[in-house]
Amino acid sequence: MKRADRCRILHSFLWTRAWAGGLCLLCLSSARLSAQPLVPGTGQKATKSSDDFEDPKWAYKYNLPKGSYENDKDQRTPAGLSANNRWFEGGLRGQPDVVKRVDTPPGGLPGSTGSLLMQSRDTGVPGSYSYKFQQDDLIANVIQLERGALPVSWSPSVVVRVYMPTWDQWEQRTGTSFGFRISCMTHKMGRSGGRRGRMINEEEQYWPGMFMQFNKGDGQKVKDSATLLLRGGPSGHDFAGAKITNVPAWWTLGLSVTPDGQVHYYGHEGVEDLSEKDRLSSQFPYGYHAERVDTFFFDIISGDNGSLSTPWIIDDATLYYNRH
Q: What's the whole-model pTM score?
């Protein structure tokens, strides 16, 4: 029996367990065997939607009050937007309270004079505090500037340099405060019209990426540290990718997606380009196989309690792909 026939049988009779991102188990096994990790930064640089923050006139228009649709269904349009049209406030959550070009901290990329500071205080609904972890998003304007999403056949990837401040500048709690993520689309089997509806192959959006988690020490034997968390494993769970003990320091982080729909996570201390030895993991988050990448974005996370978040500085946020 041919592979295509075996796939059709599984699709017909075992959809409840066989489907993962639009592929059956036989397809999934084949894709995993053929997966080849891709070093982020490979291919053509997308100059229109990348940003090195070198322009002294770089500016951001906040268009306050910012949105908080995730909490109260209010987007408060128009959204915030950078003067160069490369960054905007997401529709689900608001933008960071501080989005500002600053001088590049010591040890950054050679020749770099400008970087981007992101920091928040009010990460929930403007004017009130939830005293719960909330987040703001700054999103790259990829779809408009690249005239569409990037199919995984183009092997898209993103690289960014991130500055780790001294421990006393981190929000003094154990938990995440920064995210670097991509927005992916795939298909999965689901029911139309509720539990008794017919099975359909529907679109699904998901957001793999990396988070910085501060591990608060006890001031004595246990020292402050941070963990680079990766999202995510087959069930979407976060897991440790690297430990950070040396601050202040720059780190280079990268995410790539290969034509089989697999996400690859890379990172190292320093600002040198990534290489094969810097791969932290390769995953099919949530069991999905990505079909396209819509954008990349950054999260600023805080306790939404009136205190400023950890100040995060990034530089050279760069998108790459191999367009056919």
A: 0.88
